[in-house]
Structures are given as C-alpha cells and as structure tokens.
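no rush on this but wanted to send it before i forget. theres a chain ive been looking at and ive put its sequence and its fold in token form underneath. please have a look and point out which stretches look like helix strand or loop to you. thanks a lot i owe you, the record is right below:
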Amino acid sequence: MSRFYLISLVAVWVFSCKQKKESDLVWDVNFSQIGSQSSPRSVDLNGDGILDFVMGAGKNEFQESDMGILAIDGSDGELLWAHPSEDQVYGAPVFQDINDDGVPDIFIGGRSPYFKAIDGKTGNLLWEYRYDYEDHPVLQYARFNFNTAVLVPDQNEDGIPDLLVSNGGNYEAQPYLTENRFPGVLMVFDAKTGNILAADTLPDGKETYMSPVAFQQPGEKATQVVFGSGGETIDGSLYVTKLEDLMNNDLSNSIPIARENGHGFIATPVIADINQDGMYDIIAISHASTAVAIDGNTLKPIWENQVPGTECSNSFAVGQFTDDDTPDFFTFVSQGVWPENTGSVQVLFDGSTGEIVFTDSLGCTGFSSPVAYDLNNDGIEEAIISINEFDCNRFIGDQSSFAVENRLLVIDFKTGSHYSIDQTKGFKNIFSTPWIGDIDGDGFLDLVHCQYYSHSDLLSFLGMRVKRIDLPIKVRKTPVWGAYMGSNNDAIYPIR
C-alpha cells in the first residue's frame, strides 16, 4: 500500500497518536475520460455508518456522459452508482431525504441547464428541471448554468426544507462585451417535487456565477439571502435580500452592500461573526480581489482590503488562523488577467481588521478553495490547499503538452511554513476543493481529494482519480471548514 508522510507533523504524532504513525492511502479510484469542476461532499448512502462521497463530473463541455454524478463508497472507493448528464455537472451536491426511505437524496446542478434530484440509495432520477419557459418574463432567462444550491426553511408547508439556487452565465458572451449577456435568475425549488416556488431576475439585470447563501440571525425567524452579480470582465454587486421578498417574486428591494467596477462577485461569500456582537456578518471577495466585511446588523462596511494586480474566483476557508477569538479568512487569488493569469497568491485576512497578515506564492492559477483544521494542536488552524506546479506563464487555452504536478499542501500560519501531504506528477486540480473529516468514526482525520490527468490544456477532461488518505491526526474537534462552503455545506461559520 502506498504511504504518504507528513514530515513536519512527526512531533504531533508522538504527542497525540499512539495507534497511527503515518498516513495511509486507503483507496484510489480512477475514472477514464471524465473530469470534474465539482467538489466532493460526504453523506452515508448505504447505511454502513461510514461516510460516502458524492460529486458532479462529466466529459468536456457540451458532451454527454454516463458519469455525470458519482457516488463513491467511503470504505473502499467502489462506485455505488453513477447518473448520466447532458453536460458538465460542476455544482456541489446538497443532501435531503425527500422520498422517506431514510437515505438522503441528492440535489445538484451544472451546465446546459442541468438541475436534478437523485435518489441517494439507487442513483435513479426523482425529478429534473426542464426548460420550457420561452415566453415567461423571468424564467425565460433560466436557461444557462445552475450553481451550487443551499437549503432554506420550508416554504410550502410540506415539512421539507426547500432549495435556493441561482442560474446564469452564457458561454457565447465574449469578454468585456455586453452582447449575449442576460440577467441571472434567483430561484426557489420545492425540494420534494421540483416545482418552482419563486423566481426573479437580479435587480441590476447582470449575469450571475455566484452560489447564493442563506442565513438567519440568532433569535430571528426571517431568512436573509446573499447573492452576487457580474463576471470576470463585467461590473457587479453583492446584495442582501429577504427570502420572503424572493418568495413574492420580487428582488427590487434588494440592498447592494458592495460594488465592483470591471469585475463582479463570483466566489461564494461566507457568514461569520467578526465584530463579536452575537450577529452574523457577511464576508466576500470580488473578482477584482477586493475583500469586504459587512456588518450583518447594520449592513455597513466593517473593513475592506484589496490584493492589487490579481483576480479571485476562490471562496474563503474560515478558521482560527491568528491568535485571537475572531475567525479569519484565507483564500488564494490569481496574478494577472484571465485567461492569461500567471500565478497564484495565497492570502490571509485578519477577521478583526481586514489586514493581510500572511501571503505566499505557491503554484499557478487554480480555482479550488481551501479547507482548515488545527493539525498540530497548537491552537492555530492550518489550511489545506491544492496547487498545480507548471509553467505559470502558459496561456490557459494552450493545448500543447506540458509538465504539471499537483500538490496537496498544508500551510502553517504560526510558523509561516508549508509541507506536502500528497503530490503527483502528470495530474492537475483546477477546481475541486478537498474534504477533511472522520469518515469511519475511528477518531482520526481522513482526507479525500481529486486529481485530474493532464498532458494538454488545463481545462480539458482526460480522466480523474479520487483518493482517500487516512491521516495520523486525532480528531479533537469536528472540522468546521472541512469542505467547500464549510462542513455543513452552508458557508456559515457558527457563532460560538
């Protein structure tokens, strides 16, 4: 069996682990001809008490595939089931039992447009979105890409939480031009039936690529919704609205809380209390790499900071990365201008002040997001990121062969050092966020991550592998930010 060594954590193993002294590759499952822009999320689908993994996948854009959604057995990596797709399924899955069989079902979306509910036990279709709204004033625009959904409180009194999701984007739109750009649509689906309960276009008429976030302030029943507009080269804004307004098919009263010229808001925002008033605040980063923190009570800015000369489509990992009690925000940004980005910069924003307290320049452009955990039990969380090492000056659309190596790294903010968990030549990871947690309940940390075979252009799908690595790290606390949008899949860092 292959083994991976966390060289810098030897002292931790001696201190905290008496049963495990090195990292084990438990399984490594390979899939030919497909790839993914999705991220794995965990759920027990076969009732064995071990977490399984679901993610979107597919072939290259506009191609059908029998492997559009994958369910992987967490114990041995075997494929539990696969569901077909008409195009790439890039959203992350959402879980909710809607057929009363005791097994969570899956909701996931992607291109063409593609949004489906899948039986978690069998992989069979429960319902799907079908575009037939050419004459509808709002839904005529819901014909593009479905981003990652989130659950919202039950809106139609059937006892089941419903689904908030955005639809937008158009592959025919050229950079910097407004032609062929259409307003994004914010929608609420009945999770049980797939009926559309509410929908409206974004108030500024701009496109959207952002996955929306919904949250309730402590002690309040009203649900707030955060969503964003704009793209890589198109102005956009970050908005807050009330879910009840959306349920009335009316986003006109949405409040813009941040704006950006020449760029929009693409990365999913996060929700955390950073001014210690017991209320959730909103933290986001624009595509121009302007990070903003907005008071969730007053909707006024708390701080703002920008990483000049860079762009960002990567969401934050939220964690205790500095030596105070306020959560901090870590991500990485791309140097240069898409599609000619030339490198990656890792950036840590102090949650209290917005000050940039750590930077590094590891690897080339990539759009996965980091996860976080205190691996060495020093009271400060580390970040785990996936990076790619190749010629960073390479044009994204260049389809000639090139050398690339994917590395899974730990960044220790206390010492400023970094070290590898896993690295593989000939593989890349441009989009997928790793997952960390305790898969089998043995009290030790596990890690699942994805790699994609690469010898030509970075965005093509040529085959993929998913790995489970057992780490010799004792689980002292359940990871809070162990997956894309956090371990609870809602982008909320809970108030302690």
Summary: Confidence is low (pLDDT under 50) at residues 1-18.
